[in-house]
């Protein structure tokens, strides 16, 4: 498979890239700088907020993974319309993105999201608001999308044993490592168990 990957230099994105390359897929990444060489890796040097750069990364792909974060900027919400537009122009349907547990449904306040309903302990809602905007963009599209929504995300190796739930965070879940999040997101690209929905993930 030919995979276009955004956010390949981040903690979760870099692990997704390693898994895809190890399995023999051809991966194109959009990055601000050169990343480690690999025979099946193509690097497009550019900016995810630039339409031409995004198009160059996506052209020829079979599917897209976005592990773009917020980093206290609007890069995520600026990039996603460009990604969706490029996918539609190329006839690519499948996309998996990494979100946040804050945009899952609240268990405390019906009809609200976790960051709105008191489920989340985070004081700042900026990241959740950015991820919600992306979720709404995908929801309004005709793409086959999945938003993987991890809770607290410490660095750590994949150890398995995690739980997933459609549109909610598994009850009692408090953390999930970056590597297990990457493992699940990568597998979900192919399995599509959570097509057109959010997937909460936690131990």
- Class per helix and strand makeup: alpha/beta
Task: Count the domains.
Answer: 1
CATH superfamily: NAD(P)-binding Rossmann-like Domain
CATH class type: Alpha Beta
Bulk shape: globular
Largest sheet: 8 strands, mixed
- SSE order, one letter for each helix or strand: EHEEHEHEHHEEHE
Mean pLDDT: 96
Structural features, described:
The chain has 203 residues and is α/β, with parallel strands linked by helices. It has one domain: Rossmann fold, CATH 3.40.50. Helices cover 34% and strands 21% of the residues. It contains 6 helices and 8 strands, in the order E-H-E-E-H-E-H-E-H-H-E-E-H-E. Strands 3-2-1-4-5-6-8-7 form an 8-stranded mixed sheet, with helices on both faces. Strand 4, helix 3 and strand 5 form a beta-alpha-beta unit. Helix 1 crosses helix 6, helix 2 crosses helix 3 and helix 3 packs parallel to helix 5. The longest helix is centred in the middle third of the chain and has 16 residues. The two termini are 30 Å apart.
């Amino acid at each position: 498979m030919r995979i276009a990957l955004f956010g390949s230099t981040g903690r979760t994105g870099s692990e997704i890239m390693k898994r895809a390359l190890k399995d023999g897929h051809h991966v194109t990444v959009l990055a601000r700088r050169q990343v480690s060489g690999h025979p099946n890796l193509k690097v497009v040097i550019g900016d995810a907020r630039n339409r031409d750069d995004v198009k160059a990364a996506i052209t020829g792909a079979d599917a897209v993974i976005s592990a773009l974060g917020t980093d206290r900027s609007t890069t995520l919400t600026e990039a996603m319309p460009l990604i969706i537009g490029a996918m539609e122009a190329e006839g690519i349907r499948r996309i998996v993105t990494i979100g946040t547990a804050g945009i899952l449904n609240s268990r405390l306040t019906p009809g609200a999201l976790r960051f709105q309903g008191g489920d989340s302990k985070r004081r700042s809602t900026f990241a959740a608001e950015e991820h919600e905007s992306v979720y709404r963009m995908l929801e309004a599209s005709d793409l086959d999308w999945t938003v993987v929504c991890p809770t607290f995300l410490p660095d750590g190796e994949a150890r398995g044993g995690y739980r997933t739930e459609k549109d909610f965070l598994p009850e009692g879940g408090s953390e999930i490592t970056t590597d297990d999040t990457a493992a699940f997101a990568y597998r979900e690209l192919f399995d599509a168990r959570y097509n057109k929905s959010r997937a909460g993930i936690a131990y």
